[in-house]
Write a structure and sequence with these properties.
The protein contains two helices and no strands. It is mostly helical and about 40 residues long. The protein is rod-shaped, with a radius of gyration of 13 Å. One of its GO terms (cellular component) is cell outer membrane. This is Putative lipoprotein. Keywords: Cell outer membrane, Lipoprotein, Membrane, Palmitate, Signal.
């Protein structure tokens, strides 16, 4: 039912949401800064 592109976008959005929620909690601000640049 889902195309490969839809699945890929779903996974990417899930990863971005997980990074946005867990990043600031598990990493110091200095370590999280390079992650925001990669996004």
């Amino acid at each position: 039912m889902f195309s490969r592109r839809n699945i890929t976008m779903f996974i990417l959005l899930g990863l971005l949401a997980a990074c946005g929620q867990k990043g600031p909690l598990y990493l110091p601000e200095e370590d999280a800064s390079h992650i925001t640049i990669e996004d």
